Amino acid sequence: MKKYFTNLNFSLGFALSFVVIAMAVISFAWTPYKPNAMNARHRLEAPSISHPLGTDQYGRDTLSRVMVGAVNSIVVGLVTVAIGLSLGVLLGLISAYYGRWADESIMRFSDLLFGFPAILTAILITSILGPSAINAMLAIGIFYIPVFARLTRAVSMTLWEREFVAAARASGASEWAITIRHILPNILSPLIIQGTIQFAVAILAEAGLSYLGLGAQPPHASWGRMLNEAQTFMDISPWMAIFPGVAIALAVLGFNLLGDGLRDTLDPKMVKVR
User: CATH says 2-270 is which class?
Assistant: First the structure.
């Protein structure tokens, strides 16, 4: 682990990501107030000792909602990356193994998905299926499939030409046994790096969808939804937008830096020659 923490990007990313994850975990057991509890007497209060991040237009505690919103963002990141990773890796391995028509079909399908911007694809799917956190996760996860499929294909095709694969064939191992025992373990590093970076993108995409009303629905706390509700009160209660905005920025920055740090450490091409 020492080699990871000597990398500045990894150290900063780990610290920021740890804060976000810790905030989400703590919210399961404790929040200063119930996140959906309304109190008209304390609506639009500025940050104070009783409400460190202030309150919103319904008198709900902003700190409590930011903490619960972290859970929503992390769940979205985990589910969307899991969807993209599982299906994308499978398609990428098939594409690299069979080649020809299978490779061409899968890559053209990937091109089709890449032809539409991620947020546009997500808006289309959530508009058809209806606005909800589940549909937002499905939409983002579908866009991630070609991302992981292309990466898996590219790395796998180079590995199939390596000597250890020829040795495995000579020992009588089947093609799929070689794929599972030799190819898949050797592509884990780039997949982990890509997954970490896409985790950050998923948080940002979910916040955008929630801001547009296509993600998590009221009264569930979501950072994007909190920004949407805050825009009406920017002139009198700017903290309503500042704190969820800062939470999004720190979460995205943290996981991006974590991904960059992992890339610098795990990718042999990025290791400086000493």
Answer: mainly alpha
Report domain extents, the chain: 2-270
SS (HEC) of the chain: CHHHHCCHHHHHHHHHHHHHHHHHHHHHHCCCCCCCCCCHHHCCCCCCCCCCCCECCCCCEHHHHHHHHHHHHHHHHHHHHHHHHHHHHHHHHHHHHHCHHHHHHHHHHHHHHHCCCHHHHHHHHHHHHCCCHHHHHHHHHHHHHHHHHHHHHHHHHHHCCCHHHHHHHHCCCCHHHHHHHHHHHHCHHHHHHHHHHHHHHHHHHHHHHHHCCCCCCCCCCCHHHHHHHHHHHCCCCCHHHHHHHHHHHHHHHHHHHHHHHHHHHHCHHHCCCC
pLDDT tens string, the chain, 274 residues long: the values are 677 888 899 999 999 999 999 999 999 999 999 999 999 999 999 999 999 999 999 999 999 999 999 999 999 999 999 999 999 999 999 998 887 888 899 998 888 887 777 677 777 887 788 888 898 899 899 889 999 999 999 999 888 888 888 888 888 888 788 888 888 888 999 999 999 999 999 999 999 999 988 888 888 899 999 999 999 999 999 999 999 999 999 999 999 999 999 988 876 554 444 3
